[in-house]
Amino acid sequence: MPHLTRRKEGGASTGVRTGLGVPGLAHPLVAPAEWGELTRPGAPVHWAVLDVADGPGVRPDPHCLQAAGRLRTAGVRVLGRLDLVHGTRAFGDVISDVHRYLEWYRVDGFLLHRCPSEREALPHVRRTVAALRGLAESPHIVLGHGIQPYPGYAENADQLVTFSGSWSDYRWSQAAEWTADYPPERFCHLVHGVPRGHLDEALRIARWLGAATIWFTDRTDHGGRADPWEAMPGYWDDIVSRIGTGVSE
Asked: Which of 15, 30, 148, 173 has its CA 20 to 30 A from that of 120?
């Protein structure tokens, strides 16, 4: 078992259900079966990211429209992917993507990909989130830091992605002390390269570190040359069977 920093007693809510946050499968035209699996009855999917073409694309995509509609019918939140490029992307360009996602795909919220994590960038992110909440009705906002950010970010989103990376790093990871002041449903962990034989261990680590939304896959990034999230994990059925009925704290 890896060395972990345990959450403070009382910091985690009881009975919280572990579920899946899908960071972005390949285009529905390329992977129709995978998108169909997300609507399987009992599949514990909290949300799925719709990335048409590094964002909403330049025109409505019929395959993405169909996939988004099926997800909503199944009760799965559909999130648009907004790339903040670590805080360097122009505010106007981000808002342009927001309008297209809302108009064309009627998304339920947004994943702010490559969201900055340092204290100095917090006002910029706060401004962006405020704009999103003004343009959409109760959007679900996920800040995709990929690391543990400055604590102030937790007050500006529904969820924070506080880990995104490899299994070799995840199994020795630790939770920042301030995260214990929030319930597990506020945090998400995305982990690639998780071997089938270590799936139960990975689930235990997520619960120990206090993350109720997870995405584990045996796909790898091949040293940064591939996207490990674009295909379903080879043990998809195993994940659904383990947490489909609700794995609780």
From this structure: 173
Question: Cα(73)–Cα(27) distance, rounded to whole angstroms?
Answer: 19
Cβ atoms of 232 and 25 within 8 Å: the answer is yes
Answer yes or no: are the C-beta atoms of 167 and 202 closer than 8 Å: yes
Indicate the burial class of 137 (C-beta count within 10 angstroms; 0-12, 13-18, 19 or more): exposed
pTM of the model: 0.92
Calpha distance 201→243 (Å, rounded): 13
Q: pLDDT tens-digit profile of 116-157? A: 999 999 999 999 999 999 999 999 999 999 999 999 999 999
Q: Give the separation between CA 121 and CA 105, rounded to whole angstroms.
A: 29
Q: What is the pLDDT of residues 2-61, one digit of tens each?
A: 334 444 443 444 456 899 999 999 999 999 999 999 999 989 999 999 999 999 999 999
* 182 in Cβ contact with 154 (< 8 Å): yes
C-alpha 92/C-alpha 101 separation (Å) is 14
For the record, the structure tokens of 45 come out as 């999917």
Quick one: tokens of 136? 């959409």
Label the pairing between strands 213-217 and 187-192: parallel
* DSSP track, 34-61: HHHHTTSTT--EEEEEE-SSSSS-SS--
